[in-house]
## 1
Amino acid sequence: MVEGGLLLLGAYVVGSIPSGYVLVRVFRGLDVREYGSHNVGAINVFRVGGVKLGVLTLLADIGKAMLVVLVAGAVMDQAWLVAGTALAVLLGHAYSVWFYLKERRFSEGKSVASSLGVLTALVVLGELPWPVAVIPLGVWGAGLLLPKLLTGRWWCISPATMAAIVAVPVVTLAGRPSVAYGLLSLLLCALVLARHKNNIRRLRAGTEPRLGACDR
C-alpha cells in the first residue's frame, strides 16, 4: 500500500515537470505561456521557441509518461495501480504542482503528448493492443492535413487533437480491455477535453492561432 502511494505521488511529480516552459525559458528567455495558445505543450513551444525546442518538448513529455508507466508495470502487477499511475502522470502535466507552488495557479498543460506516452507504454507492456496508440495518431494526422489539402492553408490544431483524443476510448473499449484500462481511457479523454476548454472558447471567437502562427 505504501509503495503504491509513493508510486502514484512520484508519477504526479514527474508529470508536473514543465519541460516546455523550462526549455523556452532557458534557451529563449521567454515565458511560453505569454504567447500563442498560452499552453506549455510542444505545439506552442514550436510557435514560440522553434522546431528544435518543440521537438525536445514533445520527446520530453512523451518520455516522462512512458517512463513512469513502464516503471509501474515493471514493479507492480496490479492493473488498477498501473492505470492509476498513468492517470497521475497525466494529472501532473495538466495541473503542475511547480506552477501552483510558485504562482498559486496551474498552467494550461493539456497532457496530449503525455497521453501518447501513456498509451505507447501500455502497448509495450502488452496491456493494450497497438491500434490504441496508432489509430488516434491517424485521426490526428488526417484532421491536421485535410484542411491544408482542401484549402491550401493550415487550420487550428486543437480540433484535430480533440478528435484524436475522442478516438482513444472508442478504440480502447472496442478491444475489450480490463475494467481498469477501459476506465483509464475514458478519464484520459475527459481530462484532455476539459483542458481544451479555452481552445474551444477561442475557436468560437475566431481567435485560436493557426498552426505556424505565433501571437506575440
## 2
Amino acid sequence: MHPALHSWREELPDAVVRVLAYLGAAAVLSIAATYLFQPPATGIPDAPVVRSPWVEIERPFPAFNLSIPEAADMPSSYAIRRHVVGHGRKDILGLGEPDGTGPYLQVEVYRPGTEVNFLGDPRADIAASAAALGPVAIVQSAEPLESKFGPLTIVTFDTTKGVTRRCLAFVRAFDDPALQISGWFCQGGPDLIARSTLACALDRLTLLAAGSEPKVGALFAQAELIRSYCGQRSPLMAPTPKHRALWNAAAGR
C-alpha cells in the first residue's frame, strides 16, 4: 500500500489513542449530565425589579416646620423625596417614635410636578403612604375636620406592623397652587386621637421658605389668618399656647 494511503491513526501509539478515546467519552458524559440535571425551565420570566419613582434627598433643606413644645423631648425627622420623572416634591415631617408605644405624628406636604394623577381616593392615598404600618380597617369619615387649612378629609385605620396603634389620618388638596397636605396621628390603645388634638397639631405647621412658589407662601399666609390657636381664636396668645392634650394626655402621662 502506498504510504500516503496509511491512516494517521495507525502511526499513533496505542496508548495515545486510548487517552483520546477516554477524553472524548468524558466530554460526552459531561454534556449528557449537564442536560439531565439542569433545572427544568418553568417558562415564567424573572420578575422585573420594581423601583420606586421617588428618590430621597441626602441633605434636605427644610421648607416647613412643625413646632410642638409639649413634645420637645420626642425624636423628630425631616425627609424630602423627589419624583424621578415628574420632579414633584414631598416634604415629610415626623414627630415621635414610629415603632414606639407613644403618640406618633407624620405630616406630608406634596407639591406635584408633571406626574399625572397625583391626587386619588383619600383612602387609597393614605393606605399607600402608610404602607409601612400595615394599615387595616381603613374607614373614611363622612364628617370633615375644620382646620386652618380648611376642611380636612378624615380617614381612620389600625396598624398591623410594629406596635399596634389606632390612627387618625387626614388629607387636604388644593388646586392653585397644586399642593396636598396629608398624614396621620397615631397612639396606642383602643381610642383614637381626638379631632381637636389633630387640628391643634396642624395649627403648628408653618412655612419656612416658599422658594420660587409665591402661591405656596400666600396659601400659608392665608391659613395663619384663620388659625384657631388651638381653640383660643386670639392672636394675642401667639405663639400657640401649650395644649396639654396635644401630646402629654395622648401619651397617657
## 3
Amino acid sequence: MSHAAFVFDAYGTLFDVHAAVRKHADRVGPDGQLLSEIWRAKQLEYSWIRTLMGAYRDFWALTEEALDYAFARVPSADRSVRGDLLDAYFRLDCYPEVPAVLKALKETGAKVAVLSNGSPDMLASAVRNAALDTVIDDVFSVDPLGLFKTAPEVYDMVTTAYRLYPEAVSFQSSNRWDIAGATKFGFRTVWINRTRMPDEYSDLAPAMILPDLNALV
C-alpha cells in the first residue's frame, strides 16, 4: 500500500483500553471485565452526546465521569482502586505489534500520525509510555476543535496540516463508527477488527478489514 500518510486512532487501535482494569483485576474484583466494558461504552457515549449538544468537555474529564458511572453500575467493584485505574489509563499499554508496524511504515517515507478524541496530555503520556514518540510524526487531538469524532472537522485536521487530499491518507481504527466517519470524509480506511465484531454501516464500508496491524506492512 502506498499512501502519503498513515493515521491511527489511539484508543482500541494502538492502545488497549482494557489494560487498566486488567492490570488491577485482583483488586477490582470478579466483575472487572464488566466494569471495563461499561467504562469504555460510557466514555464514547459521552463524547457523542456532548458533541451533538455543543457542550464539550475534554476526553480525560469524560474518562473520569465514565469510570464513576461504571462503579455505580457495578457495586461489587472496589472503588478504592479508582485512582490507580485512572493512573493506568493515563499510561495504557500498546498492542504488541504496534511499535514494529509503525516503525516499518515510517521507514517507507510516509507520515505516521495519531488522530484521537484523547486530550493532549493523555495522548502524550500514552505515546511516551509505549516509546512510540520516535516513530510518530504528529499527534492530532480533537481538543482545539471542541468536537469529537465523527465530526468531519476532526478528520480535516489531518488533510489541512499535511496539505493532502483525503484519498492520500490511510486511516486505521478499531472502532467501526470511526471508520464510517473517516470513510464518509474520504479517507482510505482500514478497520482493525481486533474483537471480531460483526460489520455495520454497510453504506460506508472500509477498504480493508484486518484482525490487527501486522498486515499493513
